[in-house]
Design goal:
The protein has 567 residues and is α/β, with parallel strands linked by helices. The radius of gyration is 29 Å and the shape is globular. The chain has 20 helices and 15 strands. The protein binds one RNA strand of 77 nucleotides through β1, α2, α6, α16 and α18.
RNA sequence: ACCCCCGUAGCGCAAUUGGAUAGCGCAUCGGACUUCUAAUCCGGUUGUUGUGGGUUCAAAUCCCACCGGGGGUACCA
């Protein structure tokens, strides 16, 4: 449980401002509630710098430089900051104390798997809902970015102290489920040599035939002998279960596991159903209009009304009349009122961006604060194998499954590659490049750092060093050691950064920097030295290596990647 | 037509969310293996942040207009 260095420095600054005022060095002013601070980009500026005095210049009617000079002497002494400097045009620069940095080695080792975790937030229950692909077939590669983003987001929020639940929303209500059932049924009937004519749309993929074969093996001729609607209802149930089992298995290969699976269908069962209740609520608050035989959701924030229940003239089957929005509204209530999550995070592809305002408006209409609904929109990925683009649409019947791609390039590469860019940029994922085991593949660079430490520790063990070697970390004074330490100590901040901005791409960026600092340390500082005079230094460096391994393993874990002992 | 995302070094991307001299990888050029894995390291080269205005002490970041690329605008699911 760490507070971040950054936060601690912010505390120092506000204490400095308070004390400077008390001492009369500055006129009275209100201390800003947020104090800007960022890691310095140049060594000459120390480790952290704050431009807060620039913003104060106007209110205090003084030059930023003067304000900084008035505050700096009043900034309290602390064990982790060795130097506070003022630099033009008015920055406050902080240098971390080298001794304190070295002392963080045993701290990190003691924290182990909890290193980087932030203080538990009281009553901040967060749900991350992701993937949520229609249960009408295997996951396609199209689901990959969603899966990876959502899972890393959940992991990072968990580390940031939130109580996180991962949820998969199962769209099992309406015509697509029927379509799945019909598809399986027809294929199944054909297997028995008694083809059925049914004028309904079906899914064309090969997986339908496979499901039909399974059904044949499990149920024999049973479904041919019963009434068609009953058969279809049962097959639907069976098919969805079967597809979801496959989805879960595929996701498990990506090391993704859901805490709960919420079925859309449950919103329409019970008396009164959740849907009926929400409809009533919206009607009372004047958000429902009836037009052309359909029910529409209306809200001042929306450019136009959105259909909630389609008219009988357009959709014959009553079960298929409610739209996605109708279910989304039930789901909002389910998440944020019935289950009382503080925040609901949705992970959506950019192709659904148009739905965001409707869901937000619906939340408002239901009396749910819209800030509690957070929608991560990520841009789409085009997958290709060299020159060839991969299909990812289920309705075409020809598509590349997520499973194939996982088998081809491995879960680690997929996760790292898809995580490394901000959700805002479109991506081009080349499988040929992802499997390439070369310098062009950053995945190995990071994992190799971990492996390399494991190798050093094995070597040390062979030389007779105990596995849990302890020593005096104060001996760590080499620039490469300190640079590595700075990176390691920054880890809690990276978690805060990624969690606060719902931006997991900071993880791989950090991982790669951390690995780079380890590799440099490895080259510049020989770790296991057989010289008797270097015994103490060897102990200290082995400690540092172990601690670096802890941090690497942590960041790899948050990304859902393996931290290999050997490669 | 409207809405959303993107445009940063030859290429792919960062930039703690409005802060200092815009960073990293690949590519490229030159170095480093008798010692813990060279899947590594060290050094060099690389920029009018798409264009034009504006706001600000301070803009890649915010606002306006335009240009280019992607996505979206059904009583489809």
């Amino acid at each position: 449980m760490q507070s971040t260095v950054r936060d601690n420095i912010v505390e120092l600054i506000s204490a400095g401002m308070r004390l400077a005022q008390q001492a009369g060095a500055l006129p009275a002013f209100e201390i800003p509630h947020t104090i800007p601070i960022a890691p310095s980009q140049h060594a000459a500026h120390g480790d952290y710098g704050s431009p807060v005095c620039m913003g104060l210049a106007r209110v205090l009617r003084r030059a930023p430089m003067q304000i900084a000079q008035a505050i700096a002497p009043h900034i309290p002494q602390s064990e982790f900051v060795s130097q506070v400097e003022v630099s033009p045009p008015g920055y406050l620069n902080f240098t971390l104390d080298a001794g304190w940095l070295a002392q963080q080695v045993p701290v990190i080792l003691a924290a182990g798997e909890s290193w980087g975790n932030l203080e538990r937030k009281e009553s901040e229950r967060v749900q991350v809902e992701f993937v949520s692909a229609n249960p009408t077939g295997p996951l396609t590669v199209g689901a990959a970015r969603n899966a990876v983003l959502g899972d890393a987001l959940a992991a990072v929020l968990d580390a940031a102290g939130y109580a996180v639940e991962r949820e998969y929303y199962v769209n099992d209500h309406g015509s697509k489920s029927r379509k799945l059932a019909v598809s399986i049924y027809l294929s199944y009937a054909e297997l028995w040599g008694s083809p059925v004519e049914l004028d309904e749309p079906i899914y064309p993929g090969d997986y339908i035939a496979e499901l039909a074969q399974e059904l044949q093996a499990e149920a024999g001729r049973r479904y041919l002998e019963m009434e068609r609607d009953t058969a279809l209802a049962e097959i639907m149930e069976w098919g969805i279960q079967r597809v979801l089992a496959g989805v879960a298995a595929d996701l498990a290969r990506l090391r993704i596991h859901f805490d709960s699976w919420r079925h859309e269908r449950s919103f329409y069962t019970g008396e009164p159903s959740l849907f009926a209740q929400q409809l009533g609520r919206l009607r009372e608050t004047g958000h429902i209009v009836e037009k052309d035989g359909a029910l529409w959701f209306t809200h001042p924030d929306l450019e136009k009304d959105a259909v909630l229940v389609r008219s009988a003239a357009v959709i014959a089957d009553p079960e298929s009349r409610p739209t996605y929005l109708a279910s989304d509204i039930c789901y909002l209530w389910d998440k944020l009122v019935l289950r009382d999550f503080d925040r609901a995070i949705y992970v959506w592809g950019a192709d659904h961006h148009g739905d965001a305002p409707r869901v937000k408006a619906a939340a408002q209409a239901l009396g749910i604060a819209p800030e509690r609904v957070e929608i991560i929109l990520y841009q789409l990925v085009t997958m290709r194998r060299g020159e060839q683009a991969l299909r990812m649409s289920k309705s075409s019947g020809e598509f590349v499954t997520l499973r194939e791609v996982i088998d081809e390039v491995g879960a680690d590469s997929i996760r790292y590659m898809l995580l490394t860019r901000t959700a805002d940029v479109t991506m081009d994922f080349d499988l040929e490049l992802a499997v390439e085991q070369s310098d062009r593949n950053p995945v190995f660079y990071v994992q190799y750092a971990h492996t390399r430490i494991a190798g050093v520790l094995r070597h040390a063990a062979e030389q007779g060093w105990p596995a849990e070697v302890l020593g005096d970390s104060a001996l760590l004074t080499h620039p490469s050691e300190l640079a590595l330490l700075r990176k390691m100590v920054a880890f809690p901040e990276v978690i805060a950064l990624a969690a606060n901005n719902l931006a997991p791409h900071h993880l791989p960026n950090y991982a790669s920097e951390l690995a780079a600092h380890f590799h440099a340390f490895y080259h510049n500082c020989y770790i296991v030295d057989s010289d008797p005079a270097a015994v103490e230094l060897t102990r200290a460096r082995l400690m540092l290596a172990r601690a670096a391994k802890v941090v690497l393993a942590r960041v790899l874990y948050l990304m859902g990647m393996d931290a290999p002992e050997r490669m």
